[in-house]
Fold:
Amino acid sequence: MLLGVASPALAAAQTDPVPAQTPPQGEPGDSGPPEAVEEETEGAEIVVTGRTPPGTVPGDIPPEIQLSPADIRSYGVSSVAELLEELAPQTGSGRGRDGNGAPVVLVNGRRTAGFQEIRDLPTEAILRVDILPEEAALKFGFRADQRVVNFVLRPRFRSITGELTDRIPTEGGSNQFQAEAGLTRINDAGRLNVNLEAEGVSNLLESERDITPSTSARRPFDLTGNITGLRGGEIDPALSALAGTTVTQAGVPAGIANPGLADYAGTAGVLNVTDTTPFRTLQPSSNRVAANAVYSTSIFGNVAATGTVRLERSESHALSGLPGVELLLPAEGPFSPFANATTLYRYADVDPLERTNRSWTGNATAAFNGDIGRWRWSLNTSYQRDESRTFTERGLDTVGLQEAITAGDPDASPFGPLDLYARVVDRAKSINQVAAIDALASGTLFEMPAGPASASIRVLGNTTDLKSDSLRAGVAQSADIGRDTGTARGNLDLPIASRSRDVLAFLGNLSLNGNAEVEQLSDFGTQTTLGYGLNWQPAEPVRLLVSVTHEEGAPTPQQLGNPVLVTPNVRIFDYVRGETVDVTQVEGGNPNLEGDSRRVFKAGLNLRPIRDTDLTLTADYVSSRIKNPISSFPAATAEIEDAFPDRFLRAEDGTLLRVDTRPVNFARSKRSQLRWGFNFSKPIVTERQRQEEAARAARRAEREAAEAAGTAPPREARGEGGPGAGRGPGGGGWGGRGGGRGGGGAGGRLQFAAYHTWQFENSILIREGLPELDLLNGSASGSRGGQPRHQIQLQGGYVVNGLGARVSANWQSATEVNGGTTGNDQLRFGSLATADLRLFANLGQQPALVRDHPWLRGTRVTLSVDNIFNQRQEVTSAQGTVPLSYQGGFLDPLGRTVRISVRKLFF
Structure:
């Protein structure tokens, strides 16, 4: 077992933080009177007036959503990374190029050098979470296409944590096990966080989901073998005469070393079939280990310095079926009784083809933050190295065998063992290195009647070096793509009206924003970005944000230079012919990609309709227009094949054999959507909490009486739950222990959130002169159909006295995809609704249980069920049939899963 301590001291003063990612200053130390801390409880949440709360993001854009420690506990998660994943509905942005930009992450209102600086911190170390709109990102030198999430940390906290998690699907077949241990210390001297994690996932086979195998009449591979006539012709008139019908295919008779013509009479027109589902994975096996270390302290008296190092290694193994051998048998040769030349299709053995990937990642960052007068500054440096090696088995090298058969060698039997022949292995390696330096200064430029005019200036430079090598079918290819980038970005906020300063007060509060960026790329020239907008608060509970951005962008080095990978036996749906086929798929970079340019308009409304109630309504309308967009390769529809004929290879009979899925440029794309919803949170006061508050009030009265009498105040008694139990619930307002120790956390929390995304337009023009692809009405950009017009996300949580339940649900509307060829019906992708449930118990917050079993202090047990109702999307043709490539096991291999975790903070 792991041993640890969790003892955050709480914030009592609301002063500005030091210029760092270190905890806010001005809070009482451990030596301060404990009763001063106790007043900050969940039952009486603190309303701060006149002073800015610690760690607040500077500027005139307030958070759309704020989470207290009690709110955070209601999610039942362990780390910042897990919390951010749960907050995806609140933190997602529709303004990114992919329509779902990840948020900018701050610590105590300051920039970080990367998410790894905070990702592994335990949630008990968080004092508050602020979620701000995309416009707030401009103040930190980022583009306005990411929301901002600010994590405010407790001034004092220490813990050693350990967690074990096991996840299994209820249908069986796979297992995921994870172990994690971490050390965290936060105090006046700085912050230390060390985290180790390991994960192992077993594979999931097609046979474990009752997948119906795909068979090809054109290339009918089998372990025993099948004979076909050349180009679908007759095998032998004599065999046809024996069978009484024209024979173009025949199974190789089993158990006969060299079958004759009469032996084939019994298998004429009947193919041997091998079930390959036990040799193909729906989910590869994988393992991963990672270590992350963060240290933050003050240097030179008033400069906060933070260093981070992260190392990660992962490996995966996927199975892609059996190696097939295609051999030409000459007419009347030693191994063919037929008058015509034929083709033999055999699987070599039962050792499946494997694709192995090994990757290593190393990252080191250093961040410095400080203040100069009314200006804040930060300097970040980083270096990252990613290395990946991929080995793909494509089949057997049977060139020598074919030559011997053609020469009539009697020892070269095509029906004998083939496992001695060498496997053809493609190899690919890539090394990507990125070094960057990033400086930001922000503050007040000058005073205006309505308030201070603020600005931010960001200058950054980075260098990227991507080297890739591949060996495919004996042909070696190499690429070395380097890119040096220099960027200057500025942002200016001008207050126009102010209610508090009585400047154009009838307008409320109004400010204008302008921002510009110039980016020089060594391989793509100069890219520019211009933006402008307004921030208007006509009344206290209402805020309107409007912004426009004109932006140019270049493809990433990975999109240009990733190594080319060729994978056999990839199962896809061919919309043109309406059939499922196994193809050879080409992946990698495309050096011919061009840059894009886009215009984004956003109007956002934030409303708090009920005073003193934690209810927030938000609505964001986003319209995006991109010229020359860069996209992953879409689905194999007739529209796409007409535009990119060189990306598809078909046999003479039209069967799809090969698809090149490397990224492409389209002519333009258009997208507009409305996303609206609400977030509600309410504290729950329990009888146990009232009793604890009464006890604290009594102790406070005793202390005040002792002070008035000039005697020492009575020493606080420890509660039954061990150290810290007497301090009561905690977790509300700015303080609390977060349920980490003893019997604390007697209060509760009720939380609901709902968001609806309504797509008005989503279309792509592949080339000028071609029809536009309407992803909302019949076109597809990927294998999962078109773009759902409606999507709904729901969340609900309830926690009281350390016992919690959380439910999340997602729903998307149905779509249809046209094949695009005459006589080929639509595919219908049905609507999909899924729900997840999490139940958790903080055992340390159960006084009676801890009294009898003290070792349970700091223990949390969690039971999670994902996809409770085991729902999978249904894909059907007009005839009601399910294409083989859209069987439920392909769309969601795991289905419903159950996860159990035990987390411990030992004292």
Summary: The two ends are 12 Å apart (CA to CA). DSSP finds twelve helices and 43 strands in the chain.
